Each structure stands twice: as structure tokens, then as C-alpha cells.
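The data are quoted verbatim for reference:
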Amino acid sequence: MSGFVVPGLIGSESGIVSSEQQEHVDSARFQGRVTSQSATSATIQIVSLITHDRQYGCRSWTGSYLMSLRAGRWLIARASITPGPCIR
């Protein structure tokens, strides 16, 4: 399982950015780590998730994702994430 998560989406970073442009997210950078994993579920802790959008500007997210394996794909079952301002 590799880091490929952005709130509510799964896929490559370029695919995520393209999809999120509909929500006015201009860019997203994600790094995460698996903190627990079984055959059908995993928890991913956010190491770094930075998004830039038209409404809020730069946001830095904290929290984790609960992932579930369904039909051979890892999907987000629950996102426990909180946005905050970017620190410059």
C-alpha cells in the first residue's frame, strides 16, 4: 500500500489534482504512513497534506484515513482530518 490519498479520492497525484479542480482545489501534496494494516483495512496517518484552493488558500491538514479493501481497491472508509493554516 503506497501513499495515494487525498480527502475522498484515490489515484495518482495528477489525477487527484485534475478531479479536485472541480472543487476549486488547485494543488495537493500528500505524504502518509501506514500505522496499522490487516488483510481488509488499514489506517493511514497524515505526515503532510497541503492543499491550495480558491476559497481558503493554503491549508495544512492533520489526522488519518481508515482505508477498506473492496473489489481489489483500497478505498477511504472514513476520513478523520482537520484543516489548519499553512505555516510559512
Summary: The domain at 5-85 is CATH 3.10.450 (Nuclear Transport Factor 2; Chain: A,).
